[in-house]
């Protein structure tokens, strides 16, 4: 029990003293106001406007894309609902049955 009597009091950090907290710097309101006034007095330079023009290849691509889109719309508009369902059923019949649940067990 004699060993525990010598160790008394709270724990201490290495290096001597307690915890050193950082002090906050106080800002001078006059300096802040002067900085804001200086910032407002000089307007920012206008940003140059960059006009993007499409290349000839891009224009051709867009024309062909629009034409194909119109053909696709016309083609789908000509089909009746019955024809669309028949086409869907035909596609489903041609698909493999890979995703079907296999039968496991007897029978």
TrEMBL record:
Keywords: Coiled coil. Residues 71-98 form a coiled coil. Residues 27-40 have a biased composition (Basic and acidic residues). Pfam families: FAM32A. GO terms for cellular component: nucleolus. Residues 1-49 are annotated as: Disordered. Transmembrane segments: none annotated. This is DUF1754-domain-containing protein. It comes from Mortierella hygrophila. The lineage of its organism: Eukaryota, Fungi, Fungi incertae sedis, Mucoromycota, Mortierellomycotina.
